[in-house]
Design goal:
β3, α4 and β4 form a beta-alpha-beta unit. The N terminus and C terminus are likely disordered. By secondary structure, the protein is α/β, with parallel strands linked by helices. The strands form three sheets. It has a six-stranded mixed beta sheet with strand order 1-6-5-2-3-4. It has 15 helices and 13 strands.
Length: 324
């Protein structure tokens, strides 16, 4: 154990910058890359034993490299409520579960590239550096811009920058199609309320951007809420939104673009004050799968498509019509 502790201390002293310069395809992200030894790469110089410890990375990674190059994904890859690509994820058997022993799980897989999130604890990061693999930290993915930065970072790290560019272009194209569908339609006053009926999405969130792309007015933005913040019932009553979106935590909605009307949800029905909110009173509270509403990968365009169908049904005469 003493030798183990000494090794960690030495690695922390080495720093990330000296390592990053060894790898041509990683040099564009020197701040986010850390490690202590050269990994074993394919003849093309690209990593072939990749590990993802984040759900958002799972979804981006699967569109950038073949499953044969991925040895493990985070456990969310098996959760149909959170994963938008569960069938494709099932072809990759390895999983890491994000517990305090995450570093041990990852190192046991002998990876040549590891992706972690911005919230990865320093001690976990330090332990991961003991292995031969470089560790790439992605950003929070709070906005569409940050999500697209993550796609570029991941693309550079796996040696597939062109594919990353195509994923971003397709995301932009599909969002553009949604905007065209709803262009000129009066925007309903819309509110997102997260689990627990206490949180909403305001300025500088991808949820706000998706509501706007879908042709809605985000009343949380208009109330000055920044990022994901708490919102009081009194404020909601004052906002009086036309439509409320909530995550379907019961897992009853599984369609990629479908929605379930709740008239009203049990949580809202418990408090008689909610009945004064127009969306509740008129039965316009819609539950969408968390994999749509809580998605910080390029697949959150699915949420924009689902929201647009609800906000502007006249613009989508065929309920199954796709905007792809």
């Amino acid at each position: 154990m003493k030798i183990f502790g000494i090794a960690i201390s030495i690695l922390l002293m080495l720093g990330a910058s000296a390592f990053a310069g060894r790898f041509g395809f990683l040099q564009k992200n020197p701040i986010r890359v850390a490690g202590n030894a050269a990994p074993t790469l394919s003849p093309t110089g690209k990593p072939i034993r990749i590990v993802s410890t984040e759900n958002s990375v799972n979804e981006i990674l699967i569109d950038l490299v073949g499953p044969e190059r991925i040895v493990a994904l985070s456990k969310d890859a098996d959760n149909p409520g959170l994963c938008n690509e569960i069938e494709r994820m099932s072809k990759i058997p390895g999983r890491v579960d994000g517990t305090p022993i995450l570093s041990e799980q990852v190192l046991a897989l002998d990876p040549d590239l590891v992706f972690v999130g911005s919230a990865c604890p320093p001690e976990t990061l330090a332990l991961l550096k003991i292995g031969r693999a470089p560790v790439v930290r992605i950003n929070r993915g709070y906005s569409i811009l940050e999500i697209q930065e993550n796609i570029r970072t991941i693309g550079e790290a796996v040696g597939e920058p062109e594919r990353a560019g195509r994923v971003i272009a397709e995301m932009d194209r599909r969002l553009g199609v949604v905007r065209e569908h709803v262009s000129g339609a009066p925007p309903p006053r819309t509110l997102y309320i997260g689990s627990g009926n206490g949180y909403t999405a305001g300025i500088d969130t991808y949820t706000d951007e998706l509501i706007q792309a879908a042709g809605g007015r985000n009343v949380a933005r208009e109330a000055g809420v920044k990022q994901w913040g708490r919102i009081s019932l009194e404020t909601v009553i004052e906002m009086n939104p036309d439509i409320i979106f909530v995550p379907d935590t019961a897992g009853r909605e599984h369609g990629a673009v479908g929605a379930r009307t709740v008239v009203p949800t049990k949580e809202l029905a418990r408090d008689p004050l909610w009945r004064d909110v127009r969306a509740v009173r008129e039965g316009r509270v819609y539950a969408l799968a968390p994999r749509l509403l809580l998605c910080n990968s390029h697949n959150n365009v699915l949420a924009a498509e689902a929201m647009a169908r609800i906000l502007h049904p006249a613009r989508y005469p065929a309920s199954g019509e796709s905007t792809r």
